[in-house]
Amino acid sequence: MRRPLSHQLKRSANPIWRAIFAHPFLEELHAGTLPMDRFTYFILQDYRYLLDFAQVLCLGGAKSPDLKTLEIFTRHALIAVEVERTFHASFGKSLGLSQSDLDQTPKGPVTEAYTRHLQAVARGGSLAEIVAAVLPCYWIYGEAGKKLYKNRPRKPKIYREWIETYASEEYWRPVREQIRLMNEVGRRANGEEKRRMRSHFLLSSRYEFLFWDQAYRLEDWPV
Length: 223
Hints:
With 223 residues, the chain is mostly helical. The chain is 82% helix and 0% strand. The radius of gyration is 17 Å and the shape is globular.
C-alpha cells in the first residue's frame, strides 16, 4: 500500500531535517548554553515571520473548497496572530524587548526570502501547493519540541518554556490537522501538482534550516 503523501515528502526531506535537528542552535538550546543574543535574534525574526505566515494561511482559506478546510485555515491564521501578540510578546518582555523593538526590527535576509517564497506560492499556487509550502514550519517545530523535551534544560527558563511549548499537545493539534489535510489534497493531486508540492515542501524545509542558521550566525544584510 502506497504511503500517504505527507510520509513521502517527509522522507524526501529527511537529509534536510536531520541537518536541522543537528544544528548547533538547537543543540545548544537543548543544553542551555546557546548565547542569549542568538535566541533574541531568533525571537525577533520569528515575530516578523509570523505576520506573513498568518497572511499566507488566510490566502489558503480563500482557496478552500469547503467550510471545513476554510475553518482550519482561518483558525490557524488566528492562532498565528495570537502567538504573535502573546507568546512572542511575553518572550520579548523576558528578553527586555519593547513592542517597538518587535515591530520595527527589519527582516533578516533569510526571513525576507522565506516569507516571499510562501507569499508567492500562496498567491500563484493551488491549495495543495500552499499546504505543502506551510507544512514544514508546523511539522519541524513540533518535531524539534519533541526531540528536545527529554533532558530539557532547567535554565535558562525561557529555553525550557520554548521547548515545552512546541512539544505540547496544544501545539501538535494543528500540526496533525495540516498533515491530514496534506494527505487529503495529495490524494486528489495529479502528477504535475505533486511535483510542485514536493518542490515547495523541500524549499520550505531548506529555509527552515537557514532560519536557524541565520539566528546562530546573527546574520545581517552585508550592504
